[in-house]
Design brief:
Number of domains: 2
CATH architecture of the largest domain: Beta Barrel
Helix content: 25-40%
Structural class: alpha+beta
CATH class of the largest domain: Mainly Beta
Order of helices and strands: HEEEEEEEEEEEEHHH
Number of helices: 4
Number of strands: 12
Strand content: 25-35%
Radius of gyration: 26 Å
CATH topology of the largest domain: Virus Head Decoration Protein, Chain: A
CATH superfamily of the largest domain: Head decoration protein D
Length: 281
Protein backbone atom coordinates (compact mmCIF):
# COMPACT_ATOMS: atom_id res chain seq x y z
CA UNK A 1 0.00 0.00 0.00
CA UNK A 2 2.82 2.40 0.90
CA UNK A 3 4.61 1.61 -2.35
CA UNK A 4 1.45 2.39 -4.33
CA UNK A 5 1.11 5.74 -2.55
CA UNK A 6 4.73 6.59 -3.35
CA UNK A 7 4.12 5.80 -7.02
CA UNK A 8 1.07 8.10 -7.03
CA UNK A 9 3.10 10.90 -5.44
CA UNK A 10 5.80 10.57 -8.12
CA UNK A 11 3.23 10.69 -10.92
CA UNK A 12 1.56 13.78 -9.39
CA UNK A 13 4.94 15.51 -9.03
CA UNK A 14 5.80 14.86 -12.69
CA UNK A 15 2.42 16.14 -13.85
CA UNK A 16 2.66 19.35 -11.82
CA UNK A 17 6.23 20.03 -13.00
CA UNK A 18 5.31 19.49 -16.67
CA UNK A 19 2.26 21.75 -16.40
CA UNK A 20 4.30 24.50 -14.73
CA UNK A 21 6.97 24.43 -17.43
CA UNK A 22 4.38 24.45 -20.22
CA UNK A 23 2.66 27.47 -18.66
CA UNK A 24 5.97 29.35 -18.43
CA UNK A 25 6.83 28.67 -22.07
CA UNK A 26 3.39 29.71 -23.30
CA UNK A 27 3.06 32.87 -21.25
CA UNK A 28 6.58 34.24 -20.87
CA UNK A 29 6.98 35.70 -24.35
CA UNK A 30 3.62 37.45 -24.70
CA UNK A 31 3.81 38.89 -21.21
CA UNK A 32 7.25 40.45 -21.66
CA UNK A 33 6.38 41.73 -25.13
CA UNK A 34 3.51 43.80 -23.66
CA UNK A 35 5.61 45.57 -21.03
CA UNK A 36 8.92 46.31 -22.78
CA UNK A 37 9.50 48.77 -25.64
CA UNK A 38 12.79 48.68 -27.56
CA UNK A 39 14.55 51.77 -28.87
CA UNK A 40 15.97 51.88 -32.41
CA UNK A 41 17.58 54.34 -34.79
CA UNK A 42 16.16 55.37 -38.15
CA UNK A 43 17.42 57.03 -41.33
CA UNK A 44 13.98 58.48 -42.10
CA UNK A 45 11.43 60.46 -40.12
CA UNK A 46 8.89 58.16 -38.51
CA UNK A 47 5.49 59.07 -37.12
CA UNK A 48 3.85 57.57 -34.07
CA UNK A 49 1.62 54.66 -35.12
CA UNK A 50 3.65 53.67 -38.18
CA UNK A 51 4.28 49.97 -38.86
CA UNK A 52 8.00 49.27 -39.17
CA UNK A 53 10.50 46.48 -39.80
CA UNK A 54 14.21 46.06 -39.12
CA UNK A 55 16.67 47.24 -41.76
CA UNK A 56 18.39 44.27 -43.34
CA UNK A 57 21.84 45.89 -43.29
CA UNK A 58 21.50 47.36 -39.77
CA UNK A 59 19.33 45.58 -37.22
CA UNK A 60 19.62 48.51 -34.82
CA UNK A 61 17.52 50.62 -37.18
CA UNK A 62 13.93 50.41 -38.37
CA UNK A 63 12.11 51.62 -41.46
CA UNK A 64 8.47 51.82 -42.59
CA UNK A 65 7.35 48.78 -44.59
CA UNK A 66 4.50 47.98 -46.96
CA UNK A 67 2.50 44.90 -47.96
CA UNK A 68 5.30 43.52 -50.14
CA UNK A 69 7.44 43.31 -46.98
CA UNK A 70 4.78 41.86 -44.68
CA UNK A 71 7.09 39.08 -43.50
CA UNK A 72 9.45 41.74 -42.10
CA UNK A 73 6.93 43.33 -39.72
CA UNK A 74 8.58 44.03 -36.38
CA UNK A 75 6.27 46.40 -34.52
CA UNK A 76 4.63 49.81 -34.26
CA UNK A 77 6.24 53.16 -33.47
CA UNK A 78 5.06 54.49 -30.08
CA UNK A 79 5.91 57.45 -27.89
CA UNK A 80 8.34 57.12 -24.99
CA UNK A 81 5.65 57.66 -22.35
CA UNK A 82 3.41 54.84 -23.59
CA UNK A 83 5.51 52.00 -22.19
CA UNK A 84 6.46 51.04 -18.65
CA UNK A 85 9.96 49.87 -19.67
CA UNK A 86 12.16 51.41 -22.38
CA UNK A 87 15.31 49.75 -23.69
CA UNK A 88 17.85 51.42 -25.95
CA UNK A 89 20.86 53.73 -26.17
CA UNK A 90 20.80 57.53 -26.15
CA UNK A 91 20.95 57.65 -29.96
CA UNK A 92 18.04 55.22 -30.36
CA UNK A 93 15.03 57.49 -30.07
CA UNK A 94 12.51 55.53 -32.15
CA UNK A 95 10.56 53.33 -29.76
CA UNK A 96 8.91 50.22 -31.21
CA UNK A 97 6.29 48.10 -29.47
CA UNK A 98 5.91 44.45 -30.49
CA UNK A 99 2.99 43.76 -28.16
CA UNK A 100 0.33 45.60 -26.19
CA UNK A 101 -2.43 48.06 -27.07
CA UNK A 102 -1.33 51.03 -29.15
CA UNK A 103 -2.71 53.36 -31.82
CA UNK A 104 -1.80 52.36 -35.38
CA UNK A 105 -2.01 54.42 -38.55
CA UNK A 106 -4.42 52.72 -40.96
CA UNK A 107 -6.15 53.30 -44.27
CA UNK A 108 -9.39 52.28 -45.97
CA UNK A 109 -7.51 50.56 -48.81
CA UNK A 110 -9.32 47.32 -47.99
CA UNK A 111 -12.44 48.98 -46.62
CA UNK A 112 -13.43 50.47 -43.28
CA UNK A 113 -12.09 48.80 -40.16
CA UNK A 114 -14.55 47.51 -37.57
CA UNK A 115 -14.09 46.41 -33.99
CA UNK A 116 -12.48 42.95 -33.98
CA UNK A 117 -11.07 43.11 -37.52
CA UNK A 118 -7.51 41.96 -38.04
CA UNK A 119 -5.08 44.65 -39.21
CA UNK A 120 -2.20 44.07 -41.63
CA UNK A 121 0.20 46.19 -43.69
CA UNK A 122 -1.14 48.16 -46.65
CA UNK A 123 0.60 49.12 -49.89
CA UNK A 124 1.51 52.48 -48.31
CA UNK A 125 4.71 52.17 -46.27
CA UNK A 126 4.09 52.34 -42.54
CA UNK A 127 0.30 52.27 -42.85
CA UNK A 128 -2.03 49.41 -41.95
CA UNK A 129 -5.35 48.25 -43.38
CA UNK A 130 -8.09 45.70 -42.78
CA UNK A 131 -6.73 42.17 -43.35
CA UNK A 132 -8.35 39.74 -45.76
CA UNK A 133 -8.00 35.95 -46.00
CA UNK A 134 -5.13 36.35 -48.49
CA UNK A 135 -2.85 38.44 -46.26
CA UNK A 136 -0.26 36.16 -44.64
CA UNK A 137 0.64 38.32 -41.62
CA UNK A 138 -1.40 40.43 -39.22
CA UNK A 139 -0.13 42.89 -36.62
CA UNK A 140 -3.10 42.47 -34.31
CA UNK A 141 -6.83 42.99 -33.80
CA UNK A 142 -8.65 46.35 -33.90
CA UNK A 143 -10.15 47.48 -30.61
CA UNK A 144 -12.22 50.28 -32.16
CA UNK A 145 -13.22 51.31 -35.68
CA UNK A 146 -12.13 53.56 -38.53
CA UNK A 147 -14.81 54.91 -40.86
CA UNK A 148 -13.40 56.94 -43.74
CA UNK A 149 -16.84 58.49 -44.20
CA UNK A 150 -16.45 60.15 -40.81
CA UNK A 151 -14.33 63.21 -41.54
CA UNK A 152 -13.48 63.59 -37.87
CA UNK A 153 -11.55 60.30 -38.03
CA UNK A 154 -9.64 61.07 -41.23
CA UNK A 155 -6.14 62.46 -40.63
CA UNK A 156 -4.93 62.50 -44.23
CA UNK A 157 -5.03 60.92 -47.67
CA UNK A 158 -2.65 59.03 -49.96
CA UNK A 159 -2.63 57.93 -53.59
CA UNK A 160 -2.02 54.33 -54.63
CA UNK A 161 -2.36 52.31 -57.82
CA UNK A 162 -5.14 49.72 -57.95
CA UNK A 163 -5.09 46.35 -59.73
CA UNK A 164 -5.79 48.13 -63.02
CA UNK A 165 -2.77 50.40 -62.49
CA UNK A 166 -5.02 53.42 -62.02
CA UNK A 167 -4.56 56.06 -59.34
CA UNK A 168 -6.79 55.65 -56.32
CA UNK A 169 -7.08 57.90 -53.30
CA UNK A 170 -7.33 56.31 -49.87
CA UNK A 171 -8.07 57.88 -46.48
CA UNK A 172 -5.83 57.60 -43.43
CA UNK A 173 -6.79 57.41 -39.79
CA UNK A 174 -5.94 55.68 -36.52
CA UNK A 175 -7.29 52.68 -34.64
CA UNK A 176 -6.35 51.16 -31.31
CA UNK A 177 -4.86 47.73 -31.99
CA UNK A 178 -4.09 44.86 -29.66
CA UNK A 179 -0.69 44.15 -31.20
CA UNK A 180 0.17 40.48 -31.61
CA UNK A 181 2.22 39.96 -34.76
CA UNK A 182 1.71 36.56 -36.31
CA UNK A 183 0.14 34.47 -39.02
CA UNK A 184 -3.28 35.56 -40.19
CA UNK A 185 -5.89 33.26 -38.56
CA UNK A 186 -8.18 33.85 -41.54
CA UNK A 187 -5.54 32.80 -44.08
CA UNK A 188 -6.61 30.03 -46.39
CA UNK A 189 -4.92 26.92 -45.09
CA UNK A 190 -2.77 25.53 -47.88
CA UNK A 191 -0.10 23.92 -45.72
CA UNK A 192 -2.26 21.15 -44.13
CA UNK A 193 -1.34 22.36 -40.64
CA UNK A 194 -4.36 22.24 -38.28
CA UNK A 195 -5.51 25.60 -37.00
CA UNK A 196 -4.94 24.77 -33.32
CA UNK A 197 -1.31 23.85 -34.05
CA UNK A 198 -0.81 27.11 -35.95
CA UNK A 199 -2.24 29.07 -33.04
CA UNK A 200 -0.32 27.18 -30.35
CA UNK A 201 3.06 27.42 -32.11
CA UNK A 202 2.59 31.12 -32.92
CA UNK A 203 1.54 31.86 -29.34
CA UNK A 204 4.52 29.96 -27.95
CA UNK A 205 7.23 31.80 -29.90
CA UNK A 206 5.44 34.97 -30.97
CA UNK A 207 5.76 34.49 -34.72
CA UNK A 208 4.50 32.24 -37.54
CA UNK A 209 6.18 28.83 -37.71
CA UNK A 210 6.54 26.62 -40.77
CA UNK A 211 4.61 23.32 -40.78
CA UNK A 212 7.86 21.32 -41.08
CA UNK A 213 9.19 22.82 -37.83
CA UNK A 214 5.91 22.16 -36.04
CA UNK A 215 5.80 18.50 -37.07
CA UNK A 216 9.48 17.94 -36.22
CA UNK A 217 8.85 19.56 -32.83
CA UNK A 218 5.90 17.25 -32.20
CA UNK A 219 8.07 14.24 -33.10
CA UNK A 220 10.83 15.44 -30.76
CA UNK A 221 8.32 15.96 -27.95
CA UNK A 222 6.84 12.50 -28.51
CA UNK A 223 10.27 10.84 -28.46
CA UNK A 224 11.46 12.59 -25.29
CA UNK A 225 8.15 11.95 -23.54
CA UNK A 226 8.32 8.27 -24.48
CA UNK A 227 11.92 7.95 -23.27
CA UNK A 228 11.33 9.72 -19.95
CA UNK A 229 8.06 7.85 -19.38
CA UNK A 230 9.70 4.49 -20.07
CA UNK A 231 12.57 5.27 -17.70
CA UNK A 232 10.23 6.25 -14.88
CA UNK A 233 7.90 3.29 -15.39
CA UNK A 234 10.78 0.79 -15.48
CA UNK A 235 12.49 2.36 -12.46
CA UNK A 236 9.33 2.43 -10.33
CA UNK A 237 8.36 -1.12 -11.27
CA UNK A 238 11.85 -2.49 -10.60
CA UNK A 239 12.10 -0.63 -7.30
CA UNK A 240 8.79 -1.94 -6.01
CA UNK A 241 9.77 -5.51 -6.92
CA UNK A 242 13.23 -5.11 -5.32
CA UNK A 243 11.80 -3.67 -2.10
CA UNK A 244 9.31 -6.53 -1.92
CA UNK A 245 12.12 -9.08 -2.22
CA UNK A 246 14.57 -7.31 0.09
CA UNK A 247 12.90 -4.77 2.44
CA UNK A 248 16.22 -4.05 4.18
CA UNK A 249 17.59 -2.39 1.04
CA UNK A 250 14.64 0.00 0.85
CA UNK A 251 16.74 3.15 1.44
CA UNK A 252 19.30 2.48 -1.30
CA UNK A 253 16.60 1.36 -3.73
CA UNK A 254 14.57 4.51 -3.06
CA UNK A 255 17.67 6.66 -3.59
CA UNK A 256 18.31 4.97 -6.91
CA UNK A 257 14.67 5.45 -7.91
CA UNK A 258 14.89 9.17 -7.12
CA UNK A 259 17.99 9.53 -9.26
CA UNK A 260 16.34 7.82 -12.23
CA UNK A 261 13.24 10.02 -11.85
CA UNK A 262 15.38 13.17 -11.84
CA UNK A 263 17.25 12.02 -14.95
CA UNK A 264 13.93 11.28 -16.66
CA UNK A 265 12.63 14.75 -15.80
CA UNK A 266 15.82 16.30 -17.16
CA UNK A 267 15.30 14.40 -20.42
CA UNK A 268 11.66 15.52 -20.58
CA UNK A 269 12.34 19.20 -19.82
CA UNK A 270 15.32 19.12 -22.17
CA UNK A 271 12.99 17.89 -24.91
CA UNK A 272 10.52 20.71 -24.23
CA UNK A 273 13.33 23.26 -24.32
CA UNK A 274 14.57 21.72 -27.58
CA UNK A 275 11.06 22.07 -29.02
CA UNK A 276 10.98 25.75 -28.01
CA UNK A 277 14.36 26.43 -29.61
CA UNK A 278 13.36 24.60 -32.79
CA UNK A 279 10.23 26.74 -33.12
CA UNK A 280 11.90 29.99 -32.06
CA UNK A 281 15.09 29.97 -34.15
Amino acid sequence: MKHTQKLKNIIVFIGVAAAALAAILLLAVPSSAQTVTQGYGSDVALQQGMIVGLKKDDLRKVEPINSSQADQVHGVVVSANESAVLLGNDNEKVYVATGGRFSVLVSDQNGNINLGDYVTVSSVSGIGMKASNTDPIVIGKALNYFDSGNTAQVVGTANIKDSSNRQKQIHLGQVLVDISIGKNPMLKNDDNLPGFLQHASSLMVGKPVSPARVYISLLLLAVTTSISGSLIYSAVRSSLIAIGRNPLSKKSITRGLFQVVMISLMVFFGGIFGVYLLLKL
